[in-house]
Amino acid sequence: MKRVIPYSHQLLKETIQPGDVVVDATMGNGHDTLLLSELVGESGFVYAFDIQEKALTATKQRLEVHQQPPRELILDSHAHVENYLKPEHNRHIKAAIFNLGYLPGSDKTIITTPDSTITAVKTLIDHLTFDGLVILVVYHGHPGGDIERDALTAYLSQLDQKSFDVLRYGFINQKNHPPFILAVKKKSRN
Length: 190
Ligand SMILES: C[S@@+](CC[C@H](N)C(=O)[O-])C[C@H]1O[C@@H](n2cnc3c(N)ncnc32)[C@H](O)[C@@H]1O
What we know:
With 190 residues, the protein is α/β, with parallel strands linked by helices. The chain has helices spanning 4-15, 31-40, 53-65, 81-84, 114-126, 145-157, and strands at residues 21-24, 45-50, 72-75, 93-99, 128-138, 164-169, 180-186.
């Protein structure tokens, strides 16, 4: 059985093709931005968001070390994703990924929050292509993580099943609030 992070990467690999438009909603140290960049290739487009300058520095460096082209690294909340989308990318996002919580080894009080996370998810699912995917890796052991988990689960649970598949994937016998995945796939029209 795949662990949570490898499974999130498997879902991205199964979904993304060269040339696609994708979003890393929580850039952090840039591990997911790098994977997205490799998957979309030269002809693709990556938007990556974080509210911490150090995340942009770390991600830019990671992309350079791995000889990736420059990507759209944005110092702003993912809640404002709509303000940054190029017109030609409207409703053309193939995939987006969130790793919720705080940046490991950094300030544990800078965390993702329910309002901005849900605003960003709403915008991104609106801009998905058919068969496009939004993945959230939910960490909920830190203060506030439980509130974000519950708000997000409540919001995603009520999405219309005619339009979206919503998956929850995780291990239920692990100690200490193991992370889990919530993934939303926009169904094709037929
Ligand atoms: C768990 S870390 C992400 C780890 C990252 N995926 C990686 O590969 O290193 C969560 C990140 O979300 C960022 N963050 C918190 N609130 C945010 C917001 N409203 N918009 C964008 N990023 C945010 C934090 O600064 C932190 O870097």
